[in-house]
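Quick one before lunch.
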Amino acid sequence: MGITAGRAVDWMNRFASEVSEHRQELVRLDTAIGDGDHGTNMERGMRKALDRLGQAQPEDPGAVLKSVAMTLVSSVGGAAGPLYGTLFLQMGSSLAGHQEVELPELSAAWRKGLEGVQARGKAQPGDKTMVDALTPAVQALEEASELEPGLQAAARAAHDGMLATTPLVARKGRASYLGERSKDHQDPGATSTYYLFKSAAETLAG
Amino acid sequence: MGITAGRAVDWMNRFASEVSEHRQELVRLDTAIGDGDHGTNMERGMRKALDRLGQAQPEDPGAVLKSVAMTLVSSVGGAAGPLYGTLFLQMGSSLAGHQEVELPELSAAWRKGLEGVQARGKAQPGDKTMVDALTPAVQALEEASELEPGLQAAARAAHDGMLATTPLVARKGRASYLGERSKDHQDPGATSTYYLFKSAAETLAG
Amino acid sequence: MKKLINAPDAVLSDALRGVQAAHGDRLRVSFDPAYVVRSDAPVQGKVGIISGGGSGHEPMHGGFVGPGMLDGACPGEVFTSPTPDQMIEATKAVDGGAGVLHVVKNYTGDVMNFDMAAELGRGENIEVETVLTNDDVAVEDSLYTAGRRGVGVTVLIEKICGGAAEDGRSLQEVAELGRRANANGRSMGMALTPCITPASGEPSFELGDDEVEIGIGIHGEPGRFREQLGPASQVAERLMAPILDDLPFSSGDRVLAFVNGMGGTPLLELYVMYAEVARVAGERGIQLERNLIGNYITSLEMQGCSITLLKLDDELLRYWDAPVNTPALRWGA
Amino acid sequence: MKKLINAPDAVLSDALRGVQAAHGDRLRVSFDPAYVVRSDAPVQGKVGIISGGGSGHEPMHGGFVGPGMLDGACPGEVFTSPTPDQMIEATKAVDGGAGVLHVVKNYTGDVMNFDMAAELGRGENIEVETVLTNDDVAVEDSLYTAGRRGVGVTVLIEKICGGAAEDGRSLQEVAELGRRANANGRSMGMALTPCITPASGEPSFELGDDEVEIGIGIHGEPGRFREQLGPASQVAERLMAPILDDLPFSSGDRVLAFVNGMGGTPLLELYVMYAEVARVAGERGIQLERNLIGNYITSLEMQGCSITLLKLDDELLRYWDAPVNTPALRWGA
Ligand SMILES: Nc1ncnc2c1ncn2[C@@H]1O[C@H](COP(=O)(O)OP(=O)(O)O)[C@@H](O)[C@H]1O
Ligand SMILES: Nc1ncnc2c1ncn2[C@@H]1O[C@H](COP(=O)(O)OP(=O)(O)O)[C@@H](O)[C@H]1O
Ligand SMILES: [Mg+2]
Ligand SMILES: [Mg+2]
Ligand SMILES: [Mg+2]
Ligand SMILES: [Mg+2]
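Model of the adenosine-5'-diphosphate complex:
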């Protein structure tokens, strides 16, 4: 059985919970090398996204992600609003028309999402951004042959990618203003991206 | 031998040193129930007063005090400027014409000075101001029959008057804004007035 | 203590150098004695208006010197009233033959120094009138105390009297107007943090992490009491209640509301406060006809605010609205 | 955290209520999406100008809405850029048929949100031009990074473009003028203290008792490095050197000097700083033709300042001097 709209909603619910639970952590990470709003912004956005999902009840997974995308774009602001908005918008478009989504469609959608994020933000891997968690995770999913282990591998890869941002000097986003001082801090956006993959692994398969 | 102009200058020198040495104490007392500038203001004023005395070299004690008065009025500001200015101005006028000053002239001058302070500031004893140190000290001097013990009695009385301000509720000056909260703090102006009498006892007699 | 200064005892003269460099086209700066007058002073036939007070309350008073407001200002050392010679020189510099008004905030030091200036200045043959401001309802008013402090209403009075003087009104009329504005104005302030004077280097009082000081003045002096910080709505009610009770203001009154920052509070928060002030006033049927929001009478870097309400009549309103052209307050010019 | 607010997530809407209550006669406030436009918007035939950015920088941008400056402003959450729908609605509200200029500070979030607004807004048939401000010399400029931040010059550009738009200049001309001003402007900032956002409740960085943070931006982010606090003269030299080297400014240049407070620094200290800025400029033969001193682009209650120098030409000067009538900047009107 593939991923239904209900599953997609579960995913978003779980992601919202993770963000909410780790709000302080995300704020703290963003205070160190940014402006301290990443946790608050993502929490506000995901709360509104769930509200809207509850009202609109989209019929397929693509529509779920598009609805979330639109809400994030219009309520998060900052860098994360357009980036997560673009990610979900591209994923949603890629999945359009599929009532149930299988691994190949899902990894294609993630790839589109990643491309969207990079088109929007111009970040390369190694720039110390969410791209550093996204890139290896999407790759892991593409290399998988089954959904459940694929999602788990993706979550692990996102986790590794997130940790790997710590020693980097930021070249994109607000942390880049710190130059060398951005070293030795984990990137907040890569951290929230890890929670997105973790939530996926816990909700989308099985 | 009575008090000469040179003695009066010694007195002012000593007073300036006392104020300077106790600047932080006066600031701290004024921070608690005022605006924290009493020590700084008195120090600035007395430094300038000494400068001016050095240049003008007044010929009698009255002229010394008048010179100090004028400098204090034009450089201290706040409440202390006019009050100490008036004190010294009245004392100076009272002593006008005397090359050497004996106890009777001195206590008369102090009385005039105290009256001037009260005319200027409208404070009564018990209002938690410099008047609380001045009043008993002047009285002690008036009751004395010799200069040296008289000045020492005056310094002791000023000291007691200063300590007695602690439990009082202020009714005049900035401390009065605190109402009941002005209790349990020693008045800064009464404290500097004690140093004035202490300096007198140490320089004017003997 | 961390401050953008060169040395504690150079703050006043350094700041005056800055004023001269920045506003030399419109202000004339004297360093000794220290005062600032508008560059075209004295304006012949116009009542001159000066004020003065300790430094650390900027933009008051120097920032209010210019056409339509003050002719001159005498800055003292930080939180220390200026001295009589500053006042005399400034008075002479702005006297255009129609007399000079002294706007004096009711503090012992300010009052005594201005008194001495008036005494010493009698020989100068300049007619001087004094308006004493004492709008702070945090302080009990009594014959046996120093009385209420002059705070926020001072700014409004300087503007209103300035407008009247520019309009050619006589010294008596300008003074009467100032006294009426003072009688119609009430203020109350609070602090979230203390301030630190350059000379002392120490906080003016200590406050707990969730405490506020209610009934503060503008010299970093402690207030009447402290309490838990509540939401802005509650702070506004706390400050408005004694103001509204004291005058009393009543339904239908037209009022100028002045939400003043103590220096370190973001403008964002002052607008939050203004929303609450407008709400409380609205609940009493009081119409906020005009407003002023910002840092105008400050206590160095103190965080907090004060609220001033001024009951308006047609004349007060007219002179409030009149053109003004100073570094800190400007409209219609 | 001690703030005059009702709740962290209500700050923006509460402050907007305050703006509406205070300036309802001259500004129109929309709460959802959040934006503020001048009450006579759209002005037919005039280029509309909007800007936007996170809240916490007040008076920027809402305080600059009015004749002669911005037609509209979009406030985001504190330190968070606003969203595309705010920008689209504000753009529509100020379009008088001559196109709309977006003044965008160069931050990843601001740029991306304004980009999305432009994309999504293409269907609206409104001609939009963008001026990106990036004057902060504390940040290295490189193709491979996010580039320099937009700071102090933004205020000056909004004023100058506003003057040109009021003068009937075309969208292209107004945009070109804005870009020229940006190319001619350089800034550098420093902090004595961090700030605390309502949402996080924690200081944005930690500083020792005698340390300052050099090269800060306006979002409470740490700067490039920290060092011992020296006298104001040294701080001014520290900030001026990279500014003067970067453009470079040279003897005989006519310059606008903007000494900006970060929100919590007393005006007294800003004037001390201005005296030093004037001295350093004078030593290089640079003429400070105009100045602006005060809290105009802030970081909540942060103590510190930034210096902006803008090289003037006749046209920039003319539009700087042109009348402006906004809550925070007003002259000639
Ligand atoms: N150009 C970019 N490309 C990809 N991700 C980026 C880019 N700029 C910033 N980010 C991500 O956004 C995160 C910060 O998001 P957030 O704090 O919400 O926005 P802001 O920086 O505007 O306050 C960073 O940790 C980083 O992962
Ligand atoms: N009306 C008054 N009469 C006599 N002494 C007064 C009066 N008001 C204030 N003082 C004295 O002045 C002292 C404060 O002086 P100072 O701190 O220099 O002035 P300010 O209060 O203006 O800052 C008080 O401690 C008190 O002793
Ligand atoms: Mg952030
Ligand atoms: Mg004092
Ligand atoms: Mg004082
Ligand atoms: Mg942000």
